[in-house]
Amino acid sequence: MSGTGISACDRFSWGHSALRAEFAVAADGTPRLVGLDRPGGPRPVEPESALPLVELTALGHGSGWSGPRFTGTALGTRLKYRDHRTGRRGDWRWLHVELHDPATGLTAFVELTSPDGLPVLRSRVRLRGDGAEPLVVQSVSSLLLGQLPAPAALDVLRARNDWLAECRWYTEPLRDTVVDIDCDVHQHDSRAALVLAGRGSWPTDGHLPMGALTERGSGRTWLWQVESPAGWRWDLGESARGTYLALNGPTDAEHQWRVRLDAGEEFTTVPGVLALGSGLDEAMGALTSYRRAVRRPHPDHTALPVVFNDYMNTLMGDPTTEKLLPLIDAAAQAGAEYFCIDAGWYDDTADGGWWDGVGEWLPSKRRFPDGGIRAVLDRIRERGMVPGLWLEPEVVGVRSPIGAALPPDAFFQRDGIRLTEQGRHQLDLRHPAARAHLDGVIDRIVGEWGVGYLKLDHNIVIDPGTAAPRDLAPGAGLLGHARAYLGWLSELLDRYPQLVIENCASGGMRMDGATLAVTQLQSTSDQQNPLRYPPIAAAAPSAVPPEQGAVWAYPQPGFDDDLIAFTLGGALLGRIHLSGHLDRMTPRQLGLVRDALTTYRTIRRDLARAVPFWPLGLPGWTDEWLALGMRSPDDRTTYVSVWRRGGTPELRLPIDHLAHLDVRAEILHPASASAGSALWDGDALRVTLPRTPGVLLVRLSSA
After folding, report:
1. Residue 122 is inside which H or E element, if any?
2. Is the pTM for the entire model greater than 0.90?
3. CATH topology of domain 300-393+439-458+500-606
């Protein structure tokens, strides 16, 4: 369908049963998003008080006014409406709006999509240079939304995301940053903006590329994510007595990003995604369903096999045949289905100084003297498990012979100098030689050795990026490499469709939506203290669907029964990443591990469809009680994990979607009757955990 020749102030709408978007062409000829809500929501605003559909800056064409906010750009008010088209692909609706600036010849295509039945909008902008002169673009919005409630009515949520301390959400009034300057007196909106940005090759280092606004009183929520594998930015500010939201990928100011558009050349932004809900839990549920709809299909997403990994609190990068064989036998006995040999399998140095020598990815002869690593992989298969290996594909150590074997342009560089970070060089996956090298590595490991699981890590930060001869700026080089890396992963999965790939970057430092859409699992943390993992495990489903969120469970023979149960219980509503010296456990202790995995196998099919909620709100880092829930699509089955790290031994947890229903509460973990109790009182779940640390996994069934 196409709409053409729309005059100023004409309107058009688009959407489906769960989402309605209203557009209008303002008097200046620019199309604007004047309403976005559920059908039957508030009336659209007037186009003159809304924002242009696209904002961008380019050299020679800056902002209409100075300040940190990403609105009011000179080009934003010059991109005139030209056409729009709608359609559907499978379960997705799409709308493309075409805009054009006659002065520069720039054409912009706003590409909106939304899955049927979900109040979620995904937006990206494709730019094409159609002018006689080149245009150097410095920033371009992925999604703009104006006329949200006034800042005084809103709280803003952000999630700090640091190594060993991921997914730490916090809330503050938007007015704390965007203060009331009395716009009526000054006849001007505030220049203030709440700006958040992520930089470098760890896009989720510092903060998740997410945020939310909640309206006080009603609880209405706008939740967003920027799907960038490199730099990103979002900002909030005041506009026409309301609040605006701007989602961006990398920009020149924050990320040293620029692209040059010659005649016929194109650039497409990273997607910006917005989910709506009557409350935060509802919006998170919609975003979870969207993440499932947008990702690459794979059997792992429904099978959810248990993975044993030898690293965390166990071998810690020092695997040998002697150490691995008893671990393999014990992991199989406990019920693991995959066994991943983590870092160190390639290290042939006597002093363990492998860090700056990686890159060839050949197995150590010293560590695996009899039959080599393939004998160990065969042992994993003999015990009924799928073998896996850890790999850090994008780096080459400064002492590795690969550094001299590949051409200079195969690596990140600045001013013609190859970059070095912590004794390593970074491959540029846009270069055919870099890809050919890694293809050879994967074909050997997967194609010849039969490895079915790859844990792909990334432990250095390159900021702001690379400036190869073809790059205008380092940030553009970084985004180009990151997109090429994801393309390379997709090609691997095309060649080896049963291969399972875990995404890791020092835990959760690359936990972005673009990478999650390609890989099957996501490491949530490197946290080694079982008492500090619960807030990470409880909040991880805000960033990643539960069936993709790998949570460490590393019980040790030196733990008492309560701590073993606590360590295992924290992973039961995610993807169990089992570790620990199972080979040194007593039969009774190994039985506790086996019982937990048996419980997990009974619920994992439900987790692949469930959406998260938080009965006590999103967890705080030092909270004594924490809770995470998963609800099935029909609400007949609900799972709740409850952790106690201190405080009183009893707590009442409201479960709003089950209030006033006849509900049966059943403790699934731990098996010990003395661990605690859980009773449904008609409106809420009453939990008792007499000892700390304590954990319960409860199943709530309603008729």
Report:
1. strand 120-129
2. yes
3. TIM Barrel (3.20.20)
